[in-house]
Amino acid sequence: MLLGWWFACLWLFALPARAQEPSAVRLWPSPDYTRLAIESRQPIEYKYFQLGDPDRLVIDLHDVAPNAVLDRLPAAVQADDPFIASIRVGLNRPGVTRVVLTLKVPVRPSVFSLPPTGDYGDRLVVDLYPAQGKRFSAAQILEGQDQPRASQSPAAPPQRKVIVVVDPGHGGEDPGATGPDGVHEKTVTLAIGKRIKALLDQQPGIKAYLTRNGDYFIPLGERVKIAQELHADLFVSIHADSAPPGVIAEGTSVYALSEKGATSVAARWLARNENASDLVGGVNFNVRDKYLRRTLFDLSQTATINDSLKLGHDVLDAVAKMNPLHYSHVEQAAFAVLKSPDIPSVLVETAYISNPVEEKQLIDPVFQEKLAKAIVTGIVDYIHHQPSWERTRLAEEGGGSARRGMRGR
After folding, report:
1. What is the rounded distance in angstroms from the CA atom of residue 32 to the CA atom of residue 14?
2. What CA–CA distance (Å, rounded) separates 320 from 374?
3. How many domains does the chain have?
4. What b/e sequence results for 83-95 when a residue is b if at least 16 CB atoms lie within 10 Å of its CB, and e otherwise?
């Protein structure tokens, strides 16, 4: 008994005095990748490695003590997670807690730390991507949605439908704004976005896609990239933001990109908040490729911005018939998610979730459907204003791509 007590004392003294306990864990599966986030009050030191037979990812958390929060991880794994089969957590050696992810398929992990931001403390993020294939490919993101197909008629040149990409804002680790009753922006934007897609798909000559069809995080630049990989003709981002502290705001507003600065102080504030989505959701900026950097900061977009303003005007006119407007004109600011150099893009603030009355409206299915119908009416009006809009798909031998030609009204 004395010997056992002695070894117990040695084990306790071996634990570092500054060992910390994680405060939260979250698991976000999506069609393209799965994210594990471990939140703590201080940065976590870590090492990781991969094993085979079966495929596993092992993460050693240094100076971290096992606790009830980490014990929740095994139960957080969903049966339909495309990458993780199971998770085990336990003390590997004094001062080191080991997390073992048993995998369904080989993965390419991205493991990185994030500093505190918003309501989050320090986070250790583990993103699991498929070992084979493109990162954030549109085909994977939009699993379950039909891909655009050219006409098979040999008697006429191949044609395709107008492609509209609907972007439900925020998601996963990034909840967006939160209303007085706790409603998250990410929840209502997805609900409204799905309604818009369904209504657009009922329109002849139009095919709609969602950037996300579940509760998971997609970086702003990747949303732009999805639209480009789908050869989108239009991009519509759906939001339900909050007003600055102390300000009561109401109504719908529509925004387009600005090359020269925001058209109002409020637009500048909103763009800054929306552009912080990557910081809240968590992006490993060290692996962002040159393609994305070029896309996000290409400012030779005057013609596209002009078309975006026309699209925004038509959406605003249609929405005005069913809901009050916050602005009677299309506002502009430097929204990162609107920075595709060749796709007319707008951001619709459906209502202010910070307003108690509008928060209740945003979760009302009747209001969601009316709003979705109004936005779709605006999109269709814009398309009908383009009588000379060419919708021709070039032959795709050798990896050719779709081209669009558009002349203004």
Report:
1. 41
2. 8
3. 2
4. bbeebebeeeeeb
Contact of 24 with 41, CB cutoff 8 Å: no
The CA distance from 354 to 239, in Å, is 12
Return d(Cα 61, Cα 130) in angstroms, integer.
24
Rounded distance, CA 224 to CA 187, Å? 21
Closest CA to 166 of 372, 368, 393: 372
Alpha-carbon distance of 63 to 96, in angstroms, equals 6
Considering 103, 130, 157, which residue would you say is the last residue of a domain?
A: 130
Are 96 and 170 part of one and the same domain?
no
Q: pLDDT 10s per residue in the chain (409 long)?
A: 444 454 444 444 444 456 788 999 999 998 888 999 999 999 999 999 999 999 999 999 999 988 999 999 999 999 989 999 999 999 999 989 999 999 999 999 999 999 998 888 999 999 999 987 544 444 444 544 554 443 333 343 446 789 999 999 999 999 999 999 999 999 999 999 999 999 999 999 999 999 999 999 998 888 988 999 899 999 999 999 888 777 888 999 999 888 776 666 777 777 777 767 767 777 775 654 444 444 444 544 677 888 999 999 999 999 999 999 998 999 888 888 888 888 999 999 999 999 999 999 999 999 999 999 999 999 999 998 876 554 433 323 333 333 344 434 4
> How far apart are alpha carbons 244 and 241 in whole angstroms?
10
CA distances from 231 to 213, 292, 298, 339 (A): 19, 16, 18, 15
Query: Both 370 and 345 in a single domain?
Result: yes
Same domain, 191 and 331: yes
CB atoms within 10 A of CB 121: 17
Give 109's strand partners: 128
State the Cα–Cα distance between residues 199 and 201, nearest whole angstrom: 5
Q: Nearest 5°: CA angle at 218, between 214 and 222?
A: 130
- Distance (Å, rounded) from C-alpha 5 to C-alpha 183? 52
Looking at this protein, which amino acid is placed at residue 38? I
Q: Can you read off the two tokens belonging to residue 387?
A: 């009588």
Domain that holds residue 110: 12-130
Residue whose entry in the numeric block shows the structure tokens 């976590």: 44
For 115, phi then psi, to 5°, come to -75, 165
Give yes or no: residues 156 and 73 share one domain.
no
